[in-house]
Fold Pyrrolo-quinoline quinone repeat domain-containing protein.
Amino acid sequence: MHPLHSWKRFWKPKLQPRPRRGRAALLGGAGLAALTLTAVHAAPAPSGSAGQAATVAAMAERLYPSGAPAVVISSGLPGHYADLAAAQALAMRVGGPVLLAAGVDTLGTATQAALTALTVPRVSNHVQPVQPPAGKPTVYLVGGPAAIGQGVAQALRNQGYTVIRVGGNSRRATLEAVAARVAPPWPQAARRPGFPAAWDGYVGNPEHNAVFAVPASAPAWERNGVTWRLPEADAVPLSAPFPDLTQLGARGAPVKMTQTIGNAVGVTAVNGVIYAESDDGHLYAVDARNGRLLWEAGPTVNALMGNPVVADGLVFVTAGDTGFPFSQVLKFFLSQGKQPLVRGLGYAAVYAYNAHTGRLVWRHDFHGNAMPTPLAWDGTLYVPTGGGNLWAFDARTGQLRWKTYLGGFDSMSSPNLWTNPATGQTEIIVGTSDANHVVAVDARTGKVLWTQATTLPIFNTGMGDNSPAVDPGRGIVIQDSVIGFDPADHTVNLAIYALNAATGRMLWATKLGRGPAVPAYKAGVAMIHGGVVYVGSPVTSTLYALNEQTGQVLWTFHYPNAGPAGAGRGSPAYADGVLWSAAGSTLYALNPANGQLLGSYTPGGRFGIVNPVIVGGTMYLDNSYDWIQAVPLTRIDPHLAVPAGS
């Protein structure tokens, strides 16, 4: 897909709803004949095809006064109403207006003038987030050469337009071509055997290792890997510098981008579909094989910063922001920490959408942010919030079952779960800030089972900012937090802890090393595999491997060219005997036994708290630049021989 196609709307949903998607449908069916009655100008429009094209052109310029990233052109001649209806749908998808060609071999004066007017002006030499790139719109011609001639297409190319014809030699062929772009067929789960059938929580499992082997019978594309990129609504070109780089510098600009434009954490893979949620306020469902957009839902009331959770035919996402109301902070300090602190400046909510259609099923709003990824278990959806509560809803209906105050607010700590094999009791485990605790709650009743506070000097939002990993077999919880801020040199340490999942008793704690107090998210999400804990530290821009039982550091790998913002926030993945990590702007393949670099690939953009999701031979990711992408494992590690099945 061409990068320009991503600029579907021009304004952030948090500031103003984006009505342009709906406005792209200018007319339909027999309504074409009535266009001359529309009062666009004081003077009446001329009659005939040229007059109708002029009226449509005037409306397009009025709806898109600052230009459009794409324009859809359909024939304005009688007998092409089916093409026109298809053009309306395509315009909704690509985020631009419909124009009419006055004849088979001519656009007409008004349509040609509108194309010029719809060029996006260059108003700055810097990247302008949430605005389409400057330049001429991509032009889609709906219909075959009998509707809009080849001479028209060539003339547009000669003028510097990118021209894409969507159509065939019959009306049916044209409708099918448009439908393939607007409403591609839904993937059949039975034909995609390597994908999980559900995604219950953050990174897909308690260990945070989102890896799914495919059987030998899986199709070749699953086994060998695929390549595609899909720009989301606010996508920035992957080769572009960070917006606000001049104002904020290399330390602040990357994290601002992660928190306001793109994807904060990784994607979800279920039944051949990649689900991704973005700070742009939208949820995307994408065909895992070819990157085609299946549907898009939103806008939501605030940024989406988690993994979409998929269970019982529904997709769950939570919306929130990183801000603190000044009044909350003031009350907190005046009370010397006794007044509960609420995180979240804007609106917050949890949404449930139909997994196949994107239709909204239910919603619940909160006081305090809802940034973490929720957790689905046994028909219940668990949502911790910046208001300090853990909420439990009936996943199908949204009815509240219970809520429990945790003793502190949650920032980005996504809940995990563990079932005690001795008692059968399932507990929800989550981190909180102020007080900085790890808390376990009975999944059935909401009763707090244990609370573990560290004696180490927590800094910033601490435990409430990081998502605990759980080893279900050994009953161990892994959590980490920045500690020990030194005001003299503005450095901190990152400490990682192991807790007994049944009691919360601390088993060990290891300090990983001091470094600058990096901006925003300062911790690293841990992953557990084979008795080893793998965790990155943006404080030192280093990946660590530790013995799960003792906390002893086994090896380290330093991320090169991390920059002052630091790298190593997202959890790595273990697949095919290789450790895979997304850090900074690069994908790494490491030897899990010693941390030796096996290969790397830099696709562009930046990865925030992104974890790789691996299905067969493909790594699926999103990034801070608001892109979703698929990368074959062999592109990262050319020496890898992807097995037929494992």
Notes: Residues 3-182 form one domain. The first helix runs from residue 20 to 23. The chain has two domains: 3-182, 220-636. Residues 1-46 have pLDDT under 50 and may be disordered.
